[in-house]
């Protein structure tokens, strides 16, 4: 029919026929195709990790890295996680993708521990969907620690504040169970959610990562400066570590230094880089 289009999609080796008529949102079709592509990309090992150094501002040393996923697409080149993580979260593909990220990052960490520096740390982003699969996720983390042989003290799991707002008690229990495996928990993009303080009180959080939006105008907004200052004091009182995200220039760094910032991450030091380039920072 004139208003009907058909698409063949290969799924796990099987051909599937999708009949698209115009009652279906164009958006829906795009999502079906993108979802299928993510599935294939996982099978074809098209995902890669880059690592962004996390710097101790006082010593200037690299203390760890944040693993950030990218999709190395045959035709489109490098695709940013902002383009596919939300969909992968919706469709559930984040579960296998997240597992791949965790395992790959831990294997890389193990290699660095053996060849470069045994104290270096690794931060891995974890999505709410992964945490919701409570027992499965805890088991996955356990398995990865065992299989790779890393010291769990060097592994840090980053969860965003919005994650903590979802199914509160369950998520808290999951984070607690993860802590018992020896890993650390960071709250990512801190300050952008709604119930930050409550979670600092009830949950065993090791680190808050102060969102880039505060850091980026810390030099010219009194409001942002006040917020950063207060967050640093709060963290100090609670004996929580801080990482300032998105430091892009020296003025921002100096301002953060004067507010007693401990660790930082940003383009001023380095963008996310390949594992090979990352070695330079460890050395
Ligand atoms: P995030 O976890 O907050 O990661 C920090 C993001 O800020 C990264 O973007 C990084 O490249 C960027 N960034 C770092 N320093 C600067 C700076 O100085 N200036 C600016 N403008 N940006 C800076 P990226 O790699 O595009 O990742 C975006 C988001 O995608 C991440 O935010 C995280 O929420 C998500 N993501 C990335 N990898 C994964 C993953 O493996 N799993 C999950 N669940 N989410 C991931
Ligand atoms: Mg992060
Ligand atoms: Mg962040
Ligand atoms: Mg962010």
From TrEMBL:
Superkingdom: Bacteria
Biological classification of the source: Bacteria, Bacillati, Bacillota, Bacilli, Bacillales
Full-protein positions shown: 524 to 806 of 806
Signal peptide segment: none
Species of origin: Texcoconibacillus texcoconensis
Name of the protein: Diguanylate cyclase (GGDEF)-like protein/PAS domain S-box-containing protein
EAL domain location: 31-283
